[in-house]
Amino acid sequence: MRQSQERLFIGLLLVIGLSSLAEPSFSGSDLVPLRKQDMKDISAAAKAISDMFLDPTTYDAQAFGNAAQTISAKSGKTIIEHFNFEVPAAGSDAKADILEERDHFARLADDLKAYADALGAAAQKNFGEMTSDMRMKPGEPMSGGPFGTDVSAKRLGSIPAEHSFHLMLQTCKVCHARFREKHQ
Ligand code: HEC
């Protein structure tokens, strides 16, 4: 009897121990570096795309498409989920406003993904050289900012990829200005 009680106790310990290991939650110590790393990856991908627009002879459809895919995968839902909690948090520059203005924040995260997907589609259409279709025409008006912009695939498919790219960079700026602590 005593022995079986002991065994039950050990069994319970194991179950509790394992279930706490299996819990699929982030702790502050891993979520903040994770989302910061995602932002760094987004930034590196945007830089790679920017370099190709600056010097179209370096355009590589595969690399351009991969960079767009990186931004797409790390934006939208991924950003929204990673800033759902641990806001504010130690070591994080995320502002509490994110929780107060969830819809605005989510809209910017989704816009970022829409622009990245438009860039990915452009790379698939232009697998040889960077065609003039991808470039902004001299004097082309930069219609629409990140507010109230129509980011449907249809509309973004009708403007040059370079234009979508500039709108994407505005989205980064707007989100940071509103939702990220400034460093002196
Ligand atoms: C929807 C809002 C939003 C968008 C859009 C967004 N960011 Fe961020 N970004 C943030 C927030 C919030 C932080 C602060 C994260 C933290 O410290 O927890 C951040 C942090 C960063 C950082 C600093 C990471 C670090 O190591 O501290 C970089 C770099 C960055 N973003 C680049 C970009 C670039 C480039 C784009 C656009 C291509 C972009 N972000 C778009 C919200 C956004």
Automatic annotation (TrEMBL):
One Pfam family linked to the record: Cytochrom_C_2
GO-annotated molecular function: electron transfer activity; heme binding; iron ion binding
InterPro entries: Cyt_c/b562 (IPR010980), Cyt_c_II (IPR002321)
Biological processes, Gene Ontology terms: electron transport chain
Record protein name field: Cytochrome-c-like protein
Annotated source species: Rhizobium gallicum bv. gallicum R602sp
Organism classification: Bacteria, Pseudomonadati, Pseudomonadota, Alphaproteobacteria, Hyphomicrobiales
